Amino acid sequence: MKTGTICVHGAKNDSSPTGAITVPIYQAATFSHPGPGRSTGYDYSRAQNPTREYLEKTVANLEGGCGAIAFSTGMAAETAVLDLFDSGDHIIASDDLYGGTVRLFDNTAVRHGINTSYVDTGSVKEIENAIKPATKAIFIETPTNPMMKVTDIAATAAIAEKHKLLLIVDNTFLTPYFQKPLSLGADIVIHSGTKYLCGHNDTLAGFVVCAGSKVEEQLRFIQKTTGACLSPFDSYLLIRGIKTLALRMEKHEENARVIAEWLCAQPKIKKVYYAGLPDHPGIEVSKKQASGFGGMISFRMDSEKSAVRVLERVRLIKFAESLGGVETLITYPLTQTHLDVPKEKREQSGIDERLLRLSVGIEDSSDIIEDLKQALA
Fold this sequence. Notes:
This protein is of the alpha/beta class. The protein folds into 2 domains: 3-242, Type I PLP-dependent aspartate aminotransferase-like (Major domain) (Aspartate Aminotransferase, domain 2), CATH 3.40.640; 246-376, Aspartate Aminotransferase, domain 1 (Alpha-Beta Complex), CATH 3.90.1150. It has 14 helices and 12 strands. The strands form 2 sheets. It has a 7-stranded mixed sheet, with helices on both faces. It has a 5-stranded mixed sheet with strand order 8-9-12-11-10. Strand 5, helix 7 (175-178) and strand 6 form a beta-alpha-beta unit. Helix 2 runs parallel beside helix 9 and helix 3 (74-82) runs parallel beside helix 4. It is globular. The N and C termini lie far apart (48 Å).
């Protein structure tokens, strides 16, 4: 079955005797039992809920995993994955990551004795050189947030397999519609479901999708124990959002291609970072491992003053900290998504006072360009 069809039809739904097309919202905290030692399969919604279960099966089908687990936020999903590791373990991570992930690794993980080395995961040599006896996993974003760097998933998976490491891929930017890391050898895929999977900026969610049942069982135990599960109503919103994922991703990318090319021609913009531009260093890898380039663009202005002016002058585009919704959003990574990243690390990544990040929505591209044009004037 094609990915677009899975988006619409999700998991098989035979749960409603009414024949309802829409999956019911089982707004229940607990479920009754037929008798001692007997269960309907549902006991308490922290452990499992029918609405959330349908969503999880849908996301697992989309990613091609053995199972998916839905969390209350993307960071809750990452925190659960971090709980797979023990004190003394070491993780290799992309050197350009979402600021919340860096905050998690550099604070919570460190307090639990888990250390992280940040390297350019676009270089196989740098990954190999960073491996230590204590290394247990490689964590990558591709494209990265916000510099849009690309990592070869299959090549990284080969290194992980050789050294018996877990490969964890944050697939938020491209979604399973454009990229399927598990099919390329990844062990775990993470999503901020808040973003493209939901697509409407109206709920928070996170997902972990597993290639193998052993890791899935461990993560389900962690979720049941720590309790960061997605609510039935939020699960319903994600189910509804995913139905249009294919259509939205196509439009996001169509707009992003046009806008990235337009931005490249603007005198006040000194550099455009978009994985689909012909001169992007990772474009051939992207073509090999993904079917699209997505809707995320970063660009560097000629001065801090120009960057601030754009943020103050946009009208149709909203100055807000998120991405992946139907509306076009512009973000200032320095003071928003990457505020808690140490200054030295930010500067090494290229995150400075001139960098802006654009989450291209599904409006008419000419209207987005007109707004950018007047903001740049």
